Amino acid sequence: MPKKNRDLLRFFSFRRIAIPVFIGLVAASYLFIRDFDRESFAQIRWASSAWLWLGAALILMAIRTLAYMYRIRLLTDHELSWRKSFQVIMLWEFASSITPSVVGGTAVALFIVRKEGISMGRTTSVVMITALLDELFYIIMVPVIILLVGTGNLFVDTSDMTLFGMKLGSLGLFVIGYVFILALTAVIVYGIFINPRGLTQLLIRIFSLKMLSKWLPKAKQTGNEIILTSAEMRGKSFIFWSKAFLSTFVSWTARFWVVNALILAFIPFTEHFLVYARQLIMWVILLISPTPGSSGVAEFFFPLFFSDLIGAKLGTPLALLWRLVSYYPFIFIGLLVFPVWIRRVFFGGRRSIRFASR
């Protein structure tokens, strides 16, 4: 088996999978024990509506996945079937779940899409445009939601957090994150749609400086990827981009509405846009998480952002339920899809596979 293929198998090793699961469960267990209150839990009632809203949360996760599948089929000009799109998205999510959020699963996504027989130029454009659409959704939705809910109750106190030696609350972290995403997106848009070769030359000049020269090969690779993406995407129609952004909007909205559905499963609630808005703020913090799939970090920050709305004692249990619905399924589904995909892509669908021992 070629080295790249063996590297992929090692990437999805047991250790990589076990680490985020272990961190998340330990963090959730600690917070649950710390915040446990018998009287508060005795007040929770499992009504029929609870099961209805839990079912709605699962449906929203399915809608999120279907929207992602539609988008990748669109970006590949329907070269991927629905079945292949499902496998690619599940493995992409799987890779993102077991790598630090600040790193993401981009490198694995490039490899997975390329192994589906998609050309290198189109593979690069699919991964890069996917990231660009996600960032554009965030950039657009933040001011829209803030206009709807205001800023009075939007930010919570996280002043004990330290970034680059500075203590920052959720407002400071959000401003830094939003400005960074805005600047990065502007650079990518300029590179893809306006002047790809000019941006590539600028990157090479910057990383040719002695103090940055170790990253020069990566800068050259990024520049080549931008040029390939530009060649693939600059001639696309308005309808194409409308469909691509609409599928992005549907997938992210369904993802965020999962929390609203879980809250409604246990308490009557009306501040839905505020919950949506706080998820946009929390997402910036999770984006810079050093742990695989934000394990531990997500479970810790969920109560901080929502306990004042749903009750202090319900914050941690809902955080665990949220992760059980929106995070762990991708790990377990990925475990099921991975050998099927390996058999189809590397072994022509043969059921008997013998992997190298190393």
Task: Please describe what this structure looks like.
It is a single chain. Helix content is 74%, strand content 2%. The chain has helices at 3-11, 14-35, 38-42, 48-75, 82-97, 106-115, 120-149, 170-193, 196-207, 216-233, 238-264, 272-287, 297-310, 312-326, 328-347; strands at 161-163, 166-168. Helix 8 packs across helix 10 (216-233) and helix 9 packs antiparallel against helix 10. It is globular, with a radius of gyration of 21 Å. The protein starts with a helix and ends in an 11-residue tail after the last helix.
Total strand count, please?
2
Strand content: under 5%
Helix content: over 70%
Distance between the termini: 11 Å
Enumerate the spans where pLDDT stays under 50 for 5 or more consecutive residues: 353-358
Sheet with the most strands, sense and barrel status: 2 strands, antiparallel
Structural class: mainly alpha
